[in-house]
Specification:
- By secondary structure, the protein is α+β, with helices and mostly antiparallel strands.
- The protein has a domain at about 20-60.
- The protein has one helix and five strands, in the order H-E-E-E-E-E.
- Strands 1-4-5 form a three-stranded antiparallel sheet, with no helix packed on it.
- Strand 4 and strand 5 (about 55-60) form a beta hairpin.
- The longest helix has 18 residues, at about 1-20.
- It is elongated and about 55 Å long.
- The model has no long low-confidence stretch (mean pLDDT about 80).
């Protein structure tokens, strides 16, 4: 019983840190993004955070 309570208390206190997401400052959609990766992939959207960190690239 004490072990279960300890695990639940740990889980409850660790969740808020993981639940926070950083939002993108700039999202560019419906364009052509050349990823310059090994496959020379082309994407349609990119999200930029903190002015210069590419946060996410997608083809949807």
């Amino acid at each position: 019983m004490k072990r279960t309570l300890l695990v639940l208390a740990f889980a409850a206190t660790s969740l808020p840190g993981h639940a926070q997401r950083q939002t993108a400052d700039l999202v560019l959609r419906h364009g052509t993004v050349l990823t310059v990766d090994a496959k020379d992939s082309v994407a349609q959207a990119v999200a930029i955070r903190d002015g210069h960190h590419i946060d996410h690239v997608t083809d949807n």
